[in-house]
Amino acid sequence: MNTKDTLIIGAGLSGLTIAQTLRVRCYGHRFLLLDKNERTGGAIRTHAEDGFIAEAGPHGYLDNCRESQDILVDIGLTTECLHAPLSRFVRYVYIAGSLRQIPQTPLAIIKSPLIRWKAKFQIFADLWKKPLQGEPTVAAWAAYRFGASLLPFVDAALTGTYAGDMDKLTIDGVMPGVRALEKKHGSVIRGLLAAKWQRNRPGRLSMPAMTSFPGGMQRLPERLTEFLRPEIDLQLNCSVENISKTEDGWQVESEKGTFQAANLVLALPVNASLALLKGIDNRIPLPDLPEARIATVVLAFAREVKLPPGFGYLIPESEGRFTLGALFSSNMFPGRAPADCSLIEVLAGGRRHPERAELDDRTLIRQALDDVKDILNISSEPIYTKVLRNSSGIPQPEQGYPDLLAWRNRLVNEQQGLFICGFGWDGIGMNDMIKTAGRVAESIMAGRKDSGQETSVKGVYF
Ligand SMILES: Cc1cc2nc3c(=O)[nH]c(=O)nc-3n(C[C@H](O)[C@H](O)[C@H](O)COP(=O)(O)OP(=O)(O)OC[C@H]3O[C@@H](n4cnc5c(N)ncnc54)[C@H](O)[C@@H]3O)c2cc1C
How many whole angstroms from 391 Cα to the centroid of ligand 1? Predict the structure, then answer.
């Protein structure tokens, strides 16, 4: 029997961050990271071919999270980072058949010609409206507080983050911090002003930058893995089939044998955790969480095709397009394509159209190309195409998600040595994962239970 201090199931960004923190901050702590795949990184996967670099998973993360910055320093990647500041790169929303620049700050939203004056006044109705009861969807909540005219923008924003459906995602699941402000102050605007006043941070909202690496996002998990000793700290090709409690800790049964430890961390997407937790507690309020799957269609064009400036565009469902949006990857980071070529990554599928992400490569490329040619007014054929598929779906905090979270918090409080984090539990972004994983590692080192996440309002969500 292989005995450790801590077993961590899942060697994606969450598990790797916990391992890194324990390795650096808790000398002598014996941990083992188990993953069913032959590689680490989970949802993070870069595709590099013929001088083109594209992502099957995350394209980057915002540099406004202290914990993520600390990890970069720890593993010596700070100087390698590429930064694409949001303030310099515009993003577009495709509305009424053309690309319109997304206003990036509250003041720019108020000034924007995209929103009619009547609709702008409606936004301020938030000041006098009572909080909506129950678990409203984001669409119902946003229309009630700020008016229905904002819905295409809300839709585009949720497409760009969750690949989700605003008629299914709930405001309590997506923005618990904003919802808490609304409930406390009776108005989101009043709550935001009060929070700003309390932080005593006058002045403009500073815009963060998107971060990546010259070789793509995979560099981050690969670097984190370099510090781990194969078979001692890390077991790959090792699917965990069952977990159970022992007298003094936890037991894990896997493809590669049985392991025991005082602490057990599930650093897994919500549904993978639920599958293992069924045997531990039968009061799980939801059988599983819906997921949104995406296919990325990579299209490269020769020099005569010039992309508009900026990061890319998002398309609300109401526009009736096949694709969800596109990233102008060669504008975002240098080195994504050979000199003078343009690289676009087009997203298809999502919560509303999962069948589209399953289409064969030829059909996906043709449909994506039709959209891109029409929207960007391109007549040339691409010089390179590729379809990237990610086995991970994006967990969707829909109806019942707060109950699931409350159940998770109760369980870790009841079960000594059990920790649950990962994709979808306390957010879906890479910064959320790093922050929560750091908190879990701190709890393990301090020998205490995980206290859970405090709801907070982020300066920039999308
Ligand atoms: C298409 C897509 C685009 C995204 N874009 C962005 C973006 O632009 N910016 C951003 O910040 N975030 C983005 N994300 C989210 C980001 O990728 C995740 O937050 C992060 O990668 C999740 O890391 P994780 O370690 O929690 O989970 P995962 O990456 O899912 O890792 C979990 C690991 O657990 C392993 N595993 C599962 N079950 C078992 C088992 N039974 N036994 C052993 N091992 C198991 C898996 O093999 C996997 O390696 C995107 C995600 C997707 C899918």
Answer: 9
